Amino acid sequence: MPPRLQLTAVTVGTSQPRTLARFYARLLGWPVTQEHGPNPGEPEETGWAQIRPPTDVAGPTVSFEYEHCHARPVWPSRPGTQNASQHLDIQVGDLPTAVEWAVACGAVEAGFQPQDDVRVMLDPDGHPFCLYL
């Protein structure tokens, strides 16, 4: 029998961790629970931040970690470009309203949409995320 394992967090590599944490916090209505700026001598954009769902909402903690060699993902993927190797899926009750809210928060709708009941969005650092019914 395998040991008890529980996924509790997801970490997203980014060129702007604190900005991205604030974007997703606003989008989801979750608080930023931790935020660390650069160490002495590091560029201003370095650091780390975390958002966590409110106690009445199920979901993992999402952390945002500075990547020194971050390359914006390309959606949809193309040979020779940085693939989006993972993305966040966010369930919504009303897709057009959720898209409008995401855009108001700073996302953009991706040019390629593979399904009618899903909208691929791009966050401020280019990571795709999906809003779905």
TrEMBL record:
Residues 32-54 are annotated as: Disordered. Residues 10-131 form the Glyoxalase-like domain. InterPro entries: Glyas_Bleomycin-R_OHBP_Dase, Glyoxalase_6. This is VOC family protein. It comes from Nonomuraea zeae.
